[in-house]
Amino acid sequence: MNTPHSILILDEQEMIRRGINSILKSMAEFNVVADVSSGFEALTVVKSFKPRLVLMDLKLNDLDGVELIRQIKKISPNSNIVVFTAYQDDDHIFQALEAGAIAYLLKDSHSDFLTEALLYAAKGEAVLHPAVATRVLSILIDSESERRRGSSNLTKRELEVLKLIASGMNNQEIANALVISHSTAKAHVSNILGKLQLSDRTQAAAYAWETGLMQRSH
């Protein structure tokens, strides 16, 4: 028989903790090591047990939920954190996922969905509530659309510079190839990164290849 997944439950509402406890204690796949109502209690349990799973709400009186996720991941990197909350706004969703949560579930989830999500999370697989998945997908699509619009806003010279970046040239090499000054080449690179909302040359090069710009240039 497989060893059950250790799990810590964190929620301020006792009724919710009782309900989850009742569901999980009837399943051989899980071992509830503790259920607590505060962030500080949760940190104590994590330090002692290093649970495989932490099922937690983001709404806490003593600690910020997102910051708690970061602290838990520092203490126990192998603990997979499943957010179980009523918050479904973009800020909470993305901040929690960026902090290290592997799953984001809403409290209207059916018990079967909750337990299935926990089993996936225990294996290190990400799970999102359907409403959350819709929001995440929408944001990603909007972001990619914005980047593609940025590409269409590049001037002919900026497109030339982008292709040279993707071919591996540094600013001086770009300046030599286009017979422009080093400062002008640097300015073009900066403008390209800004229009495409990219942080560095590596991302710019990847963008050029991913969007087919380099293939079209050959």
Protein topology:
Elements: E1 5-10, H1 14-25, E2 30-36, H2 39-49, E3 53-56, H3 65-75, E4 80-85, H4 90-99, E5 101-106, H5 111-122, E6 127-128, H6 130-152, H7 156-166, H8 171-178, H9 182-196, H10 201-210, H11 213-216
Parallel strand pairs: 1-2, 1-3, 3-4, 4-5, 5-6
Helix pairs in contact: 2-3, 3-4, 7-9, 7-10, 8-9
Description:
- This protein is an alpha/beta fold.
- The chain folds into two domains: 5-137, Response regulator (Rossmann fold); 153-216, Orthogonal Bundle (Arc Repressor Mutant, subunit A).
- The protein has eleven helices and six strands.
- Strands 2-1-3-4-5-6 form a six-stranded parallel β-sheet, with helices on both faces.
- Helix 4 links the parallel strand 4 and strand 5.
- Helix 3 (65-75) runs parallel beside helix 4, helix 7 packs across helix 9 (182-196) and helix 7 (156-166) crosses helix 10 (201-210).
Task: Please state the overall shape, judged from the principal axes of the Cα atoms.
Answer: elongated
CATH superfamily of the largest domain: Response regulator
Overall tally of structural domains? 2
CATH fold call of the largest domain: Rossmann fold
Order of helix and strand elements from N to C terminus: EHEHEHEHEHEHHHHHH
Which consecutive residue ranges, at least 5 long each, have pLDDT under 50?
Answer: none
Radius of gyration based on Cα positions: 24 Å
* CATH class categorisation of the largest domain: Alpha Beta
> Helix segment count?
11
- Beta strand %: 5-15%
**Level of helix content?**
55-70%
What class do helices, strands and sheet pairing give? alpha/beta
